[in-house]
């Protein structure tokens, strides 16, 4: 075997070993995330060079240990030389492996949830419209690859974005600018999109849309901790994230994962909001805590993030979203609860 062929075979072994190492907080391995720039064996030393990552020290240490244990014991490996650089501010906007601010956009607020169906898109849309009601210039980017629902909630399902110079012109609905990943693809294809394609789409939607000027861009993320989340964290500095949960224990476990994910990429978390938390009976006007209550606040304390309040379970919330006029636009107790969330976020911006 020639030296070149040998090196190639070793690289393949390294790649399959590193494919087993997941980035802490994410359901993705280092190879799929394209974080490994170089993997070579030089005189018994495994030389691994990574792309810059914005990770706090405990995450770096965890990664170092996991890479070391994945490579130890491989044929010919006696020691490890690991290069894990810190990101430097990017200068070229076409080359942003490190987070680059969006031109003319002051703040970026992702809305995330560990699990699907907790009302994350509902919170994202009502938060964006609530912030606009409070006088801010707002954009809402729907990155929910597996079920883009923002166009329906804003009543612009059939609108098509046009181009504006070399950028995409967002659609304007209820006074906010919006673009959905759904406009770039049809729903069936979403499920076969893989890492690099998703990264490209996320980059385009953040940096090649005519967002400016905006005070805040709200992002509706897919549930969980996958490709879209890591792409977002690599592409844009996050001002503060909002994690949505419902009060059930199963959802809370996932909320912790959501918060951990942002911490793993050094992003600030504004706090956790509790959706579908209580129900006001039409007949007796009493507040019913259907799923139990009181578990989210202590969880926030434990995680060191703010409790952003609770939102009612109310049929009008769903009906109005389906009609394209989210509840916050009106003047009802449920609308007021979402507006109160917007006030809290505005105060943090
Ligand atoms: N507070 C609420 N009261 C009543 N219905 C709600 C409330 N919040 C959300 N819903 C409804 O619950 C369903 C799920 O909400 P939504 O699509 O916002 O969840 P999600 O977490 O974004 O889900 P996914 O991203 O998995 O599709 C929708 O039909 C929505 O209208």
Can you describe what's shown?
With 349 residues, the protein is an alpha/beta fold. It folds into two domains: 81 residues, 2-Layer Sandwich (GMP Synthetase, Chain A, domain 3); 244 residues, Rossmann fold. It is built from eleven helices and 14 strands. Strands 4, 5, 8, 9, 10, 11, 12, 13 and 14 form a nine-stranded mixed β-sheet that branches. Helix 8 links the parallel strand 11 and strand 12. Helix 3 crosses helix 11. The longest helix has 16 residues. The radius of gyration is 22 Å and the shape is globular. The termini are far apart. The site of adenosine-5'-triphosphate (ATP) has 21 residues, from helix 3, strand 12, strand 14 and helix 10.
Brief write-up:
This protein is of the alpha/beta class and 349 residues long.
CATH class of the largest domain: Alpha Beta
CATH homology superfamily of the largest domain: P-loop containing nucleotide triphosphate hydrolases
Q: What is the helical fraction, as a range of percent? A: 25-40%
Q: How does the major sheet shape up?
A: 9 strands, mixed
Bound ligands, named by name, code or SMILES:
adenosine-5'-triphosphate
Structural class: alpha/beta
Our estimate of the beta-strand percent is 15-25%
> Whole-number radius of gyration?
22 Å
Low-confidence spans: none
Looking at the structure, what is the overall shape? Answer: globular
Assign the CATH topology of the largest domain. Answer: Rossmann fold
Compressed to H and E, one letter per element, the order equals: HEEHEEHEHEEEEHHEHEHEEHEHH
């Amino acid at each position: 075997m020639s030296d070149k062929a040998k090196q190639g075979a070793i690289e393949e072994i390294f790649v399959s070993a590193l494919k087993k190492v997941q980035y802490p907080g994410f359901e993705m391995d280092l190879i799929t995330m394209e974080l490994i720039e170089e993997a070579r064996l030089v005189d018994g030393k495994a030389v691994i060079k990574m792309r810059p990552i914005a990770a706090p020290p405990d995450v770096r240490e965890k990664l170092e240990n996991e890479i070391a244990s994945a490579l130890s014991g491989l044929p010919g490996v006696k020691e490890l030389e690991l290069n894990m650089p810190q990101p430097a501010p990017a200068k070229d906007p076409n080359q942003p492996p490190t987070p680059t601010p969006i031109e003319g956009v002051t703040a970026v607020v992702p809305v995330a949830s560990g699990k699907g169906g907790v009302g994350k898109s509902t919170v994202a849309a009502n938060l964006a419209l609530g912030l606009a009601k409070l006088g801010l210039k707002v954009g809402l980017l729907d990155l929910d690859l597996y079920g883009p629902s923002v166009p329906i909630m804003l009543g612009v399902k059939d609108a098509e974005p046009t181009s504006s110079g070399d950028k995409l012109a967002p659609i304007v609905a209820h006074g906010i600018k919006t673009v959905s990943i759904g406009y770039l693809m049809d729903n069936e294809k979403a499920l076969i999109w893989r890492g690099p394609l998703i990264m490209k789409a996320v980059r385009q939607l953040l940096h090649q849309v005519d967002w400016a000027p905006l005070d805040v861009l709200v992002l509706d993320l897919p549930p969980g901790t996958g490709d879209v989340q890591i792409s977002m964290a690599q592409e844009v500095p996050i001002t503060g994230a909002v994690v949505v949960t419902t009060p059930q224990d199963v959802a809370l476990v996932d909320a912790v994962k959501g918060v951990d994910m942002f911490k793993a990429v050094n992003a600030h978390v504004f706090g956790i909001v509790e959706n579908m938390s209580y129900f006001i009976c039409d007949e007796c006007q009493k507040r019913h805590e259907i799923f139990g209550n009181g578990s989210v606040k202590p969880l926030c304390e434990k995680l060191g993030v703010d409790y952003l309040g609770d939102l009612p379970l109310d049929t009008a919330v769903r009906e109005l979203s389906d009609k394209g006029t989210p509840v916050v636009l009106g003047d009802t107790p449920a609308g007021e609860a979402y507006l109160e969330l917007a006030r809290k976020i505005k105060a943090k911006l």
